[in-house]
Amino acid sequence: MTDAELIARLRDDVKVHEMTGDGGMGRVEATRLAADRLTQLSEENARLRSLMVEAKQRLSYDADIFHDQVLDQLRHEPVRSATV
To answer: Which structural domain range is residue 35 located in?
Structure first.
């Protein structure tokens, strides 16, 4: 079950409990709070995943630049012979 499906189910449970009075207001409020908290966590998780993708792209870009710089430096340095 995805976060969105679980949130929808919790919100549906809140509506049912409010209409029927089943479980009292404590249960309704607890279910509502759980749905709200899960929504917040799901949104935060999406933001963190986005940041992680961004960081991976930046790291890859930086690695490519470093690689190009090293190759360029090697091309321009004179070859040193090893002496024994």
So the answer is: 3-76
Q: Distance between CA 77 and CA 83 in Å, rounded?
A: 18
CB atoms within 10 A of CB 14: 19
pTM, two decimals, is 0.58
pLDDT, tens only, 1-21? 788 888 888 888 888 877 777
Overall domain count for the chain: 1
Cβ–Cβ < 8 Å for 13, 38: no
> What does the angle CA 49 – CA 43 – CA 51 come to, to the nearest 5 degrees?
25
Cβ atoms within 10 Å of 35's Cβ, excluding its own: 19
